[in-house]
Amino acid sequence: MTEPLFLQPIFKERIWGGSTLKEEFDYPIPSNHTGECWAISAHKNGQSTVTNGTYAGKSLHQVWEKAPHLFGHYSSEVFPLLTKILDANKDLSVQVHPDDSYAHEHEGPQEFGKTECWYIIDCEPNAELIFGHHAQTKEEFERLMEEGRWEQLLRRVPIKPGDFFYVPSGTIHALCEGTLVLETQQSSDTTYRVYDYDRTDNEGNKRELHLQKAMDVTTIPHEDNELSFVEEHRTGAVITTLVQAEFFQVFKYDINGAASFTQNGYFQLFSVLDGQANISVGSDSYSINKGDHFILPNDVSNFTIDGNATIIVSQP
User: Fold this and answer.
1) What are the catalytic residues?
2) Which domains does the chain have, with CATH numbers?
3) Which of 194, 224, 261, 278 is deepest in the core (most CB within 10 A)?
């Protein structure tokens, strides 16, 4: 095959969503309350579709099952990663995710935990997010939560475009109003909601909270992960290693000319955040543009990207 798998995203409406996904990427969003673009996904709750080549029209899950050689026979029952773009037009609920063992035990043997990371594509001036908490013990956490002393409990962090956060399972977190984020995560949709600002839906109902499960899985006290971003300057590109962690590696490619690459993992996921370029695989060349998402399968060993573009690249 030796060609990229270009993918058609799917979109999710959320009470905190907006219209930025259309304004920024010209995506065909279903409404002005669209919060999530599931860009590269084989998860049962939303599956991307291949748009080109041999597997055009197939879901990523179908390709994963039918053509394991494309993914280097990667040893996982499910496609391991999920790439999203999130439009936090309003504050997201304060939440936490379980690890694999807790998810298997409490949500079912087919469910996985959720470690994730965020690249801040854009945000309002003075934007912030909730990342961690100030409680030193489980008792203090529970007391502040029960008394509704959220400002005292939750840790707020200022953000700017280009910031990056690694969010292991067990981390209390929430994106806040006016933030556009690319998220790389385990392929999981398991979220435990801790606090939702007492919001109600169109019918006046508050969204469900999951306080006991959240208490079970939250890391107390909060632990910050020290990230050291490593830049590699090469002809035509600057490659920044954002994180190398248990479930994924994530890189930022700043392309400013023609750059040659060798794929050294099982397969790679690409999301073009800005600009335009061409990717050459063998004798074939493919145009890649802002908002495109694709996978380079295992049989692509060498490739060249030529143009001016910012691309987030991940691999399991």
Assistant:
1) 193
2) 5-217 (2.60.120.10), 230-315 (2.60.120.10)
3) 194
